[in-house]
Specification:
Radius of gyration: 21 Å
Bound molecules: pyridoxal-5'-phosphate
CATH topology of the largest domain: Aspartate Aminotransferase, domain 2
Number of helices: 14
Number of strands: 12
Length: 375
């Protein structure tokens, strides 16, 4: 079955006596044992598994063409679970433009247990130069946050295969609809399901998908079950519900993202537009090769500095000035000020999450905000 069909049907796992077309929310934390002491319903205790989480994991594993998936309480938890599964003393290579929350995890929570080099993953020589005896993993993020850098997953996979390294990919900005890193050679895929998978800015979640059920995956599953940072049945239900429309939402996000990028590219108050769908973008050719659409995320540099950028985000009326992304409503954000004093994000950078409003209304709003800018 194709993605649109799987998204709607792959989660209908169980036989329900009331014959519900839509599976219910199973709130029970514990499940009946049979006379032999086993669990004929397939679930024992809801930290270990429950029907709503199993449905979510099954759908996402199928959409990502993986062998299994592991749902966690947030995207940050999903990343942390992978880092926790690595042997202390391991070295990892991470992207220079990495989701700042993961950078912070690596530099604080894992400061004493892992060593990290942040490298430009488009520079293969540089990657090879950083591979050491104890290097175990290359973590990629494509498109990246907030510079929309594109990493060639197949090329990095070739390096990983040659050197025996794990390849992990934060594919949040692409969603399972636009890119499937496992098909390109990744071992582990990670999503913040808070973003496009959830799609309505009302549920926090993260999910990991594996290419194979191997030793690393057993460790990850153990951290989920025994560590216990799991999403609630209601959160899983919401995500399963959202995934049914994911492919169609992504088409709208891509369409609006592209239209906004073209509009902004030609605006005199804008210095640069970072959007992988533009032929001027450095990662455009790779994005075209490995993605089925360019997504709804873009960043712009406003002419001037931090003040000019902040004036734009304060002047829009329809875009919500808020962090996060991937929801039906368009968001706009001055990025450096949320990342704090150690940020490397340019002070005049604004990140936009193109929602699903009518494009004319979005452009009209930016137009009035940027016109004010020119005065
Ligand atoms: C939001 C985000 C995360 C973290 O996910 P949370 O659900 O907020 O914990 C990780 N990576 C990327 C690319 C993100 O955008």
């Amino acid at each position: 079955m194709r993605a649109e069909t799987l998204a709607i049907h792959a989660g209908n796992l169980y036989d329900i006596s009331t014959k519900d077309v839509t599976p219910p929310i199973n709130l029970s934390t514990t499940f009946l044992r049979n006379e032999e002491g086993g669990y004929s319903g397939g679930h024992m205790y809801s930290r270990l598994s429950n029907p709503n989480r199993s449905a979510l994991e099954k759908i996402v594993a199928e959409l990502e063409k993986g062998a299994d998936a592991c749902a966690l309480s947030s995207g940050n938890t999903a990343g942390m679970t992978v880092f926790q599964a690595l042997k202390p003393g391991s070295h990892i290579i991470a992207p220079d433009d990495m989701y700042w929350g993961f950078k912070k995890q690596l530099l604080t929570i894992f400061a004493d247990t892992l060593s990290i080099d942040f490298v430009d993953l488009n520079d293969f020589e540089e990657i090879n130069r950083h591979i050491k005896e104890n290097t175990v993993m290359i973590w990629t993020e494509t498109p990246s946050n907030p510079l929309l850098k594109i990493t060639d997953i197949s090329a990095i996979s070739a390096i990983c295969k040659e050197k025996g390294l794990i390849l992990a990919c934060d594919s949040t900005f692409a969603s399972p609809s636009l890119q499937n890193p496992i098909s390109l050679g990744a071992d582990i895929v990670m999503h913040s399901s808070t973003k496009y998978i959830g799609g309505h800015s009302d549920v926090l979640g993260g999910i990991l998908i594996t290419a194979e059920k191997n030793e690393l995956w057993e460790k990850i599953r153990n951290i989920q079950e025994v560590g216990g940072a799991v999403p609630s049945p209601f959160d899983c239900y919401l995500l399963v519900r959202s995934i049914k429309t994911l492919a169609y939402r992504m088409r709208g996000h891509c369409e609006n993202g592209m239209a906004l990028a073209h509009y902004l590219q030609n605006h005199p108050a804008i210095e640069t537009v970072y959007y992988p769908g533009l032929s001027s973008h450095s990662g455009h050719d790779i994005a075209k090769k490995q993605m089925r659409g360019f997504g709804g995320m873009l960043s712009i540099l406003v002419k001037g500095g931090s003040d000019e950028a902040r004036r734009v985000v304060n002047q829009v009326k329809l875009f919500a000035q808020a962090t996060s992304l991937g929801g039906v409503e368009s968001l706009i954000e001055h990025r450096a000020s949320i990342e704090g004093p150690t940020t490397t994000t340019p002070p005049n950078l604004i990140r936009i999450s193109a929602g699903l409003e009518h494009i004319d209304d979005l452009i009209a709003d930016l137009n009035q905000a940027l016109a004010y800018q020119n005065k």
